[in-house]
Amino acid sequence: MKVLVITSNPEVDSLTNAVAESFMAGAIAGGVETELLDLYAEGFNPVYSPEDRAHYLGQAPVPRDVSVLQDRLVSADVIALVFPIYWYTMPAMMKGFFDRVICRGFAYGKDGLPGALAGKKVRIFALSGGTEDWYKTSGMDKALQLQICDRTFRHYCGVDDVVMEYVDGLTMGDDGPEARNEAAAKLMRVARMGEAMAANQDR
Known about the structure:
The chain is α/β, with parallel strands linked by helices. Helices cover 43% and strands 16% of the residues. It has a five-stranded parallel β-sheet with strand order 2-1-3-4-5, with helices on both faces.
């Protein structure tokens, strides 16, 4: 099994990247191969271009920078997306990844049938200032689940095994002892998820 972890955060020492590293560490402890795709470190351009549009219309090949990333998705059995929630959705860098890389002709066909991602596992780690309970009672979780999990991955991509997890209740810029302890506990939980996933024991 191979796990590809994709992150979106401009800060190298961010909690986003720490979550990714913890999940990978757990997966490695479970005996599987891991690979990190840091969209900022890769210099990924999230802007949907005329070349992307031409490919969507079947008038041109997929742009080279996109095809390289698609190859990395194909090589993975598990795809983990790790990103902070901005304005109740994914940040622009990750949205650009969806727009450009998880595209028609790759993730699904012109006929709407699933493509190269069908049958894979997807794990989504959403970092948020609000609590998971708030997201669920406010309806925001329902919106995220519908948009990302149900329509994108299950319906279009044929990914039945997709789970969204919250790393919640975060306070940006708080580096005090209590915040550090809480973050350490959250990272330990994420590492256990990675190990359980590797052992095929996760939900």
